[in-house]
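so the lab meeting is tmrw and i was supposed to have these ready like two days ago... anyway. pasting both below. for each one the top line is the aa sequence and the line under it is the structure tokens. i havent really looked at them closely yet so no promises
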Amino acid sequence: MASLADVYKDKERTNWLKACLAIGIAKSGLKHLADNEAQNFHRLIYSRVGSTCNSCSTKNLMHHKPCPRKSCDKVCQEIIKEHRYNSLFWKNTSAQLWQTNYWEIAKCYFPPDGYAATSSIRDTDFNGVISFMLNCRRFDSSLSFRITTGKPTNPTSVCLLYKAREIGKAVRHSSVYKVTDVELLDYFTTLSNLLNDSCYLIGDSDAQKAVKKLEKLKKDTLLLTTEEMMCFLDAVDATLKKRLKDVVDTSLNELRENTALCIDEIEDYIDTCKLELEKEEELHKQDFDKNADKRTKDYNELTVSLRKDFDENADKRTQEYDELTVTRKKDFDENAEKLTQEYDELTVTRKKDFDENADKRTLAFDEKVDKCTQDYDKLTVTCKNNFDENADKRTQDYDELTVIRKKDFDENAEKLTQEYYELTVTSKKDFDENADKRTLAFDEKVDKCTQDYDKLTVTCKNNFDENADKRTQDYDELTVIRKKDFDEKAEKLTHEYYELTVTSKQDFKENAEKRKKDFDENAEKRMRKINEQCGNTSFTETSYKKSCEEIQTWLIKQYRAMCVVPVSMLDPDIDVPLERIYVPPSIKALKRGQDVIHGGIEMDKSSTMESDVNCYKELLHRDGNPVNTIYIQGDPGCGKTTFSTKLVLDWCNAHSENDASTKKKRTVTTRGKASNRTGFSDLDTLRDYKFLFFVSLRDYSGTMCNVSQMVVEAIQSNKLPWDDSVWEHKCIVLTDAADEWYHPDLSYPPPRDYTCRCGKDQSMPLYLQRNNITNIITARPWKLANRRMSDSLTCMFQISGVANYETLARNVINVLAEKNGISQKATQSKCNDFFEKLKNNNMRKLMTIPAICVQLVHQFYVGRLMEDSLCSIYINMLDMHIAKGLHKLQIEDFDTETICVKEIKHIFETGKNEYMSANGSLIRSACALAFKTLTDSSKESSLVFAKNTITNHMTETQLGYLLQTGIITQKKSLALSPQKNIPYMFVHKTIQEFLASMHIAINQTGIEDIMSAIQSAYCDGKSILDIGQLFIFTCGMCAPVAERMSKHMMDVITSDMESKLLSISDHQKMNLFSTPNFAQRILLGGFIERLANKQPCLQLTLTHIALDDLRIPTKEIDALNTLIDMNISNITSMDAQLYYNSQQKSNRVQEIISQSRESLSYLRLRHIGLSDLQLDLQGLKLKSLSCSRGLKLNILSCTGGTVLSNLDCTYMRSCCILSPTPLSEMCILQLMSITGKNITRLQLMDVKSIDLLCAALPSLTSLHTLIISETNLAVTLLYYLPESIRKVVYRASDVSAQDVKSMVEWSKSRDACVRFELLDCRLPANESDTCNWMKQQDGIDITQCEFKDYDILRRSILKDRYRISISWSTILSK
């Protein structure tokens, strides 16, 4: 606590502070009255006006442009009517916000300037509140006195409100910041009297609290908390700053006047100085002429004297140099002769050693051959003795085998002996040639050095004769240096030759040993095979082949028996072969190193997808090589299991004996037969695989973790012979439902008979990794979220429903019509009618999900397909399921409870639901089960669950009823062995989500428990998007919970973005906006579903927005604008894509920035246009900024950019600026150098102002990662980087070998470990040995070093250049 008396010792200045505080207290006392009156006035206006409008701007109203709905004109008239003087100031208010913010109307009565940014009474000062009360007639009835009109002439007739406003002015505009005791007492009296007004304020609790505070302040007994004192000081600070600005402006004007006077005086002084200097110049010129003659005479005499001394010294130096030259030449001849003799002796010695070693190796090799031959003879005798004990057939086979093996062995032994002898002769010959060549090269080098030395001697002598004493001294020093260099060079060449000789000898020795080792291994391998053939009499090649054929035949028979599926879950009695209704799925290959985020709704994945996959070869091969591991991910019901089943069936057809007839049948297109194949018809690809093993991982969940053991157990359980040699054939191991598998919970210590080699990663089972085995794993996206494609033999694919849902719909209608005996013409008519109904976009989205597509087609076929909303479609679907169950059991009702639908009556009125209404208890139980399992903390059991989970929410009788309806099914799979515990699941995840939403709507009294379960299940950035479909259904049924769910989604996303920003990650691409963009699509889907179900207006929370007219459907734009208007002052992140010169869109962006200055922390701007986009970022505390222009469109000219003003980098941690305009680049780099100390990640592209960037980098003291793209001369930046840097990335830039060397040396000079990456940079073709140079460097760990040529289109532009990608990290010494 603190008292104002402690602030200043000056009594009158303390009085001024008390007056400031008294004004703030008085404002808090008037707040309740002013705020209530503003709200009442707002309600009154719109009750009179009726219609609403949020499209008119204040500017339009000021220029008398009529409102299209006539409502804004009426509001304007009501405001003017209540103004005391009928002269309003419209600059402070925004007409677009009149409907949503009542304080915008109150601002019409404020003073003309300074209140545009205020949005509530909380951020409005005392002068604004008093002006509102003085100017608005509505306060006449709330005050006991008559409010003063105009400027009063008699001070005694002034009202208390007017006096209070004058007090505020006097305090704010005081030049000395002092108030006398008398004035302060008058202030307290006036404000207290105002707050004690007998009409309204005497009974207002806020006003009376303010009166008590004023009394304590008057007596100096008011104690302020630290927070109150800080708020008070902020207000005083604002007042002082405004006063200081006035003083500064006055001082500047005076300074300008004085500066002008000083400049005039300086110019006069300069003119005077010029005249005096001209006079001095004339005097000095005369003196110089007098001295010039004397200096010339003295110089001539000195020249004669120096010439005489030089001639005398030249003769002496020439004689000394001749003597020195003779001595040096003599020493050199002696050294050259000595080195030549040593080299000859060394050559003779090395050759002698080599001949001795060659003879020794040849002798050892001959002995080894003799020994192997003897061993073979002994083995042959032994095998023959053993073989005589067998039957006649064995004797004959063995004789043939012995002859073949002996012949092969003799041929191999002779061949290897010949190869070894040739290698010995070749190596010896090469060595002799190299020795002669090296001797000759050395002699030539000596002669060349001698000639160079002679030439140098002659040149130096000639130059010496032409120079003076200094040249003589330099020559002496140069002679010493040249001699030293020559001696060192001669010694170095001798040393290099010696090392080369040693290396050649060592290479020959290692090569000989390697050849010998290879020969020994081949010999042992041959012997081992012969031994195996002779010793194993129980398993022959014939029996092994028969066993493989038996396993393959059984697999084909087993698979074909199970490849039959029901056409529709609404009528499971119609079972047809899979090919009758099958339509190839939409499968796309994911780009390497990227993920796709899913949230239960349609999303644009084009940025992370490669081309479509239409055949098995594209699926099973990459760049012509078989793939070892294939991941196929997809949402529930998108066709993963069906595709797996079709793959199994096609493999069976590929290996069938009657394959030709099978192919012929598949080409028939008449009704009742399979339609023409449009994809995955290359059975020849599957024919290359001998075996296909299908494993349903859900059958082994919690019991087994080795996939190969699962296959072996399944084969052996069917009493088939098994040998591990089966794995040597080309195999496909297809494992389905990896997301429903979890690792066995082993006790510690684990059982002795159980071997687990999974290690730390137990998220996936253990697969057999061989080049001839292809493992295919299907799972939902969350299971594969953290999987990375570590090598080129691993691929990941995304399956997203059928490629052509119209074909699937026709196939289903054909099968249903065939059952009912309908003609082909009538069937075609039904197909046309169905596609006409699909104009509803909600249904089009569902049609891409195969399971739901089939159900919708069946609804239409029986005449029950609804069109108005998703909720009504699913109500109708569930009602058909219950009707089907009742029909099968031949009963009228499952139960008699009919109260189920009362809580959501508005939903049930939209569809046909007589059976659901009559079976309330069963529906309640199904809803409770759906909600409980969907919000289960374990994802493995959220969609597929055991029987005991179901019986916690319903009786076994009810479970039996739901199984008959088909709402719950037992998920049987294409298993090789009988399933032990068949799990349960809802017929589709969307039906489970709809029932969970019904549970929420039915149990609104337990909303806290419901929200607690939802918040626990969807608690982070990875899981929050899974809430999508549940949220959309809830918007149509239960508005209060939907509003809280939207708030939770935004809070989680905010937390996730903050977490990503604070964590210093090694990932190059940090996309903060992917999750928020998908979340916006979810909220828009929910808002539209609310409209379709005629729900009351939803106050959804949307604080993360994306503005992109090209990606947002037209019908969603109005919904998005409405949601933005609801949350415009609380926007946390904005991702805006602006196209060309859309002034309306840029104004909208600026409006959002202005309204959300206190909350906007994440901003991404992508501008594609021909003119600059001007944005004012005043007051924003951005944590992340991304700005780019002209990206991702084929535009011939895109010169416009984003010009940002008033940018503050103080709170920023991530900044990404791509292709900025020169002005923006300059401004941003200058601001970074001042306020960018907290930036940890900086990404720049196409930077032109290298000097500015170099100047800014040292100020970024927290910088961790720097990414530079398409920027040359970037190597100069390295020496400006701060000590905090840990990662540097250069992309698509021109570099030279010298640049790379500089980068390596720089990274090694750092005290901390630094990672450096050059990605797709351009290097001159004649410098391609850079990788070899790097591999020879110590202190760095190279993780990538690739040189690639450019494609044909770019090769013509980038001639003589390679595309280089190098990555390395420094290794710190201990």
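ok protien two:
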Amino acid sequence: MFGEAGVTCSAMTTWTTVPLLLTKCEYYAQCSEYETVEILKCPEGTLFDVSVVGCNWKDVVDCPVVPTVSPVMPPEPTANPTSSPAQPTMSPTINVDIFDRLTERRSDLEDVVFRSYARTSDGTEDGAYYPSYWYQYQDFYGLANIAAFLGHAMSESIRYDACDEFHWEYKGGRTIDDGGEDGNNGTSTTSGGGGTGNNATDGMDGTSGMGRRYAISNSCGQNYQNYQEYSCPPDEVYMQCEVDTNMILQATTGLIYHNAPPPLYCMPRTTSVPYTGYWDVDVGLELSTYPYENTYGRTDVEGCCYWGRGAIMSRGICSLGKINHYLGKGGYDNGKVNARYPTTDFCAFPEAICASPESREMRWVTSMFEWAERVQSYTDPISGWNYISELKKFVDGGLVDMEFLRATSGILTMGCHDPPCAGSDVKLNGGFGSGSVYRDGERETNFQNALIALDAGGEDALLRGLLGYFKDREDVMATQILLSQTPQGKLYPSYRYQLSDFLSALTYISETGIGGRKFYTGDSRVPGGLRYGVVNAVMFLAQAYKESIQYDACDENNWEMVNDLFPLSNACGQLGMSYQDMSCGEEEAYMECPVKANMEQVALTNAGWFQAPAPLKCGPRSKFPTTGFWDYNLGKENNADAYANARGRVDVEGCCWWGRGVMQTRGVCMYGKLNHFLGKRATDDGRDALYPEIDFCEFPQGVCSSYDTYGGELQWMVGFFEWADRIQTYDVDGWNYIEKLKEFADGGYKDFSFVDSVSGVLNLGCHNPPCSGFNNNAANPHNMRDRNDIFQRFLNHLQVERTFRPPPKPTPMPSPAPTEADIPITEAPTEPESPTEYPTISPAPTGFMGRPPTTTVDDIFLTMDDPKTENRLGEMVLLSEHPSGEIWPSYLYTWRGFKMALRKMTSGKGPGEKNFFFIGDGVSAKSVEYGLVNIAAFMAHAVTESIYYDACDENSWEMVDFRYPLSNSCGQQGLSYQDEVCEKEEDKGMECEVDPDMEIHGVTHAHWVGAPPPMYCGNRQVGYWDHRTGLEENVPPFKNKAGRSDVKGCCWWGRGVLQVRGVCNYGKLNYWLGARAAAEKRNSLYPDIDFCKNPGAICSDRRAPELRWVTGMFHWVQTVQRSRLSNYFPTLKTFVDAGDYADDLFISMVNNMLGGTPDDISKRTDAFFNVLRAFNLILVEGDYEDAPVLTFCGVDYDDAGTKCTPCETNKDCSGMELCHVNVTACDVMVNGFNNTLADESTNATAAILNGVNDELANATIANENATVAIANNSVPNTNTIAADTADDPTTQSSNTTNTGAVEAPIIPMTLPISSSTNFCGETWGDALTKCAKRCPTGTDTECDPGEYCFSDITVCNSLAQVNAISNYCGVNWFDAHSKCSKPCPWGLDAECTPPESCFSNIYC
């Protein structure tokens, strides 16, 4: 079976579905681009029918026979098929026989789907409904297999109990479908008004206030369409019906109400009846006193017999022709003996669908055929959107993503999957003109009703979708959400709060519920209603993060200070609350726990910072008569005197009800409810209980201390229960949580005051902080601003807004096409010519600037596909630096993503003819080499911009007064990205418009501990990021270098592999690659991405792995390949033609062109030559992995060859030295060096830490990572440090030790090694990190301005002692290491005899 599929698909260039003949058509394969996508099996009783391109009843399928090969039955499907289960399923986890399901749900289908609506005398629905006469369950039995089909059938025909299309479009008022409903559900009504029915007023003739007038010529087409022009594509034109201008037909059905227009009809024009008029509902007559146009402009009904018929209104000469060819007389006459209706000519008598004796079945069969032929087989040639693939995603995603149904509506009614369809007015193969979908909102509702009737939607589907949403984002949950933080700001995966426990508890509380309370998963009756459930879950997680996850704590921390001290009586309540007085309401008072004075409990967890308050405790006054405070200086309780908390308590009697669990559930009411519904009380009352052994009233600490019994799920479950019981049910003074949640989601996720209100409800019991709630006095929620920021960050990380677009506003119908629209339209839109290129300094061959020849693309990808090339690039170029100094493979920038991007930028539709990425001219003998060198230069620059930092979003790196302004998103280095307009003549007008209300959060940021968070923009004032505390400080506002203290419209920071930034560059991306190109009917690589409205898509879209590269390549073309200010291509050609790829001629020109710091230039140069090595343009002898790495420190290349101080990265070098590669002068020393070097650790941190004495090992340091930082002498932002220390004499290389792998702390010459533990710094941690300047007497005057003297920094002395015994003299590092003869303990060259110098990190 698999062999046959592989052979068959290898010949298929496009998406094709073919039967597998060796299985007698029981199985079929889906092919795309010469490959097998998947193998599927038809349901029981059916086989694959090539005539309908789908599964059909066995008795009507004529499966082709394979000659000379005996049929082979396939093996039973494995437990894990290729991609999907063998039989269609409505659930991603349960195989369902669709026909059994239909039988089981018959009554629901008849109640919900197969019903029609009665109408009042004016044609509006009166709310009553009755069983449909024309569409009944038993007729549909065995044919319908998809709720989407039913949803559309309900909107097209069942709702009106009509087989024929009827007059619904009129002038002078509203359509019958408008009926006062939401404009979303009504579309075209007037040709004059051009709006929805609610907005339509005037007729085409300009008469205002007229009654309803239905053009008789509506038979020819409604909604600006002309059905007899619906031609088939050229390869199927032989099937379409020929328009018969002499045909006379009248529809069988029409609407029934007082003075309703008659059924549609068609007839030839005659001299006596040369035109048609209109039907006047006011008088109930057809008036033909003058020609009356329909919206298309027709004033006759000649040849207009091809209106819609059947369940989904099959219309037009192509669709009816195909029905005749495959099902009717046309097929029978052509030898198709199993045509279902061999005597029915659907072209000569299309009304047979509604009027023939077989109509009862035919109205379904013809519609099912059209659905299979036109909808199920739909593949968009531009975007690749495929119905079957998207259907599977929809099912696998829980049957809740209404984007699929919207796309299906577009295919059926407009001929495209993304209406309103640009270019769909070309009427081929069902192209229905451009416009909006008719009754789109109703179709979505019908679809969901059908799903529910089939028991495939509703709450179960929402839960599946919600669980799937978080499972699909498992990496984000692990790396961005479920993270805890050390007191020093270091993030780590939470120990207590795991994703598996979260999902387990969420499943139970949503599916089974507790005490009738369930977690709100969304609204199954609303299109895209899952978004409400997702927002609810994100809000829960954001609040939980601030309550407990951030601190990895289960018990409430003692955090509230009274006069700078922590009262021990905080166990009774913080924020002015008294937890033992948080009683239930009158109706629930029987549940609450009694307060027992003799109860004793001790919390399990507490804050983790050094000498933080001990865990909370409670106990009787007989044991603790009064309580004092926690002395954090001494790290112990001080009970010498009574010390009151904010509410005045000086004891802890009965104070055992502090917060516990993920939501810090507190108070006697909530613990009583836990016991009543989840604990021992439920068991005692004979009810089921999740935790029958825990009496939450006797042992509230069981929430945190029962981990061994119940695992981590208990801590989540308690939080979920409180959320469902107290937050979701909150409805006070008109503020209803569920309603406000929906308003937030439907309003575009913009009103973040909603978050503050929820924080108030959770923390204080009131929604309008500052408010009293549980308190005696009004207060704000604890860390209210942080909660809001965390929610926004989580919303961004989980891509909620990008996944669930808010519901669309009512879309008005397009206004009537102007007269000019009759100008013939070309078959494909003509792309405008690009502006004439300015003369370059030195003209390059044509091949350098335009679309690469196909052969050139093939040749370059031969090199790309070489496994050795891929391996070398992965190990030499696509590398990022971890904050520890280690070099890791880049997570964001992969070889696969690069190749995908290169393919898009060199072939196919491409980015516009002058924007192709250069990969060779296709003419020269060295065409491929030209292309490879251009790629090498591009990738080398990419290393300096983003790959080295593994960043997609620009990092916030610029400091102002030793702080990182949050307004750096507006621009760094004094720039303002939103003011960078396009200056080139050919680019003017392309800039993106700045929207001050746009809100975007970045995805990536620097990785070092305490680094600023991802950049963001929005309409707000901002402060700065304090990298020492790891927190935002927004009061007062803080300005960046350009003077900005807000982030309004500041969404244009750098993104992607070349950090594209500014409104001009994003505008050009949109003009050439994005939505603007598609809107202007030019080729577009990403027609669905508006880079001006969503610049963040580069880093956050599902296609980000290629977008990061594509946008960078486009920017390279614009700024380098098309630069008029450089000799880029002539220099490249000269470089390649010379054949000496080790020459720095070309990369020097590139460096001069692109600029950068010395570090940037060094990185770019090294990366350029490494890419050339990967492409084998620079010979790599033998296995390059075993070759010596000739990387050495020096001010320049020659200096490195003299000193031969080994290094791995620039951080391993001191002062102004950089790490240089290919320092061949040191080759002899490396090869001749004794083998002991290979056994020694090259990691200076390990060497120092292993060699330190007991004093260092036992030093009292709160943050163990501080030791590593000291050993590495590292500071978070290397760019800033390079600038700040350039003039510092202690960092100059001329008078300092030449270090090896890591620079040792420099000890000033004037100071001996002192036993003093006093050092200068801005803070104690800063002094600890730098170990730079001593203050022996302990006074601040000994320090530089802005620094203070701090004591007890013992580790610096320990490191000084280590360094003193690891410094030796030698001509170079190898010489010093081999001799180990003369120490230089002070680290000074003056201690050595010329020409020797002092070298560190030598352990003899």
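from a quick look at the 2nd one: The longest helix spans residues 927-945. The chain has 46 helices and 35 strands. will dig more after coffe
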